[in-house]
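Researcher: Here's a chain I'd like modeled. Treat it as a single chain, no partners, no ligands.
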Amino acid sequence: MLDGVDIVKQKKDMLQQSNDCPQLVALFTGMIYAYASPAIPKLVSEYGFTIEDASYFPIIPPIAMLIATPIFCKLTDRNGRKYTLLTAGVFHAISWVVIAFADAIYLFYISRMFFGISDACMFAALPTYIAEVTTPKIRSSYGNIMVISSLIGQFLSNCIGYYVSIQSAAFIMLPFPILFVITFAFMPDTPYYFLKSGKAEQAMKSLQKLRGCEDVKTELLRLNLDVQRQLSESGKFKDLFLIKSNRKALAIASVSRSFQQYSGSGSLVVYAQYIFNEAGGSISSGAGAMIVSGIFAFVNLFANVICDKLGRRKSMIFSCLGCAIILLAEATYFYVQAFDVLNLSFINWFPILGLASYAVTFCIGLGVIPTLLLGEIFSTSIRQHGTMVSNIIFGANICVALKLFQLLMSTYGMWVPFLVFGLCCLVSAFCSYFIIPETKGKTLEEIQQILKGNKV
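Model: Modeled as a single isolated chain. Structure tokens:
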């Protein structure tokens, strides 16, 4: 027989497994997203592709995500979160296989298309899965693990991609999605999904497996009441815009994720090596990219502590303000360098220090809160439609932000995109005060009551 300590440990192990397995999706998403940074210089120097050819490398995934999002949001609602996440793993594996054997630019484009489809699967299912299998007390921590996994993937991609060939990197990274598909296949879908589908017995088995104990009747009853109340509300697409609480949820999810993209985070990851090439200094562009992505990953290990202490709203405000100050300082540096106002050789270390500081500040709010809110904010009845519209807006923002950075950098110089994104962060800080709700420690049902204007 198991004693009390063993039982508690068994419960924790099961809960950790249920949340750590899907984090592998975020890990290899980060890998293939950041792979553009070390790959683009090699595509130009080793394959003879032009900069214009390579510039579409980071743009194709969000376009594919835009197109695929409605399909996989529908499948997530109909077939479950688990099978959509497994599909993400399959498309990721296909993407790496295509890269491994690619010798023409159109094949690289096809690989990026598969990655975009996988992204559509992940964002349709992963935030919802995490929100639905965790308890309110630990939701923030496991939501942050999703971001940490993505950032660790970016760090590994920069390290591996810098030192080995494109084909070798693809073969090294291919086992990660395969491992995910094998391990996650044994995990249950969420109790919310089973209750929504009228499968109470499977919901109980899922909850028992997730909590690591047999006595889950009280929690199951509460979840069932929450789900049935939310399902009693109309869940048609038009209700996303006609019902006030749904409009608020959509605005919060979409606007907070827009703040994230127009802080310049995606552009700094994709164009990291070009930024360090432009900055000069004694550190190589590859080493600089590895250092910054490593700091992103390391700081996020502790980001949830700050987010839990400050709360969602304050974390976002402080993060936006900090990023704004750093980006404007970087813009000043590149402006002085571009117009030769002053010899900056004595502080040529400033760009990497600035981006490292940006990584720290970004992680405590902008890095985790928008993704966390996506899984929390929508009612069960409208989640499919809300997630779909939010992800489409998110994909469009990725495209615009990446292309805007490249156009401003190519046309006006490096200082201009830093200036624009810095000003965007100032606006985001102001808007966060009025838009971001405080959901710390709240159940998903309590969050819905907050959106309706009811006291909790």
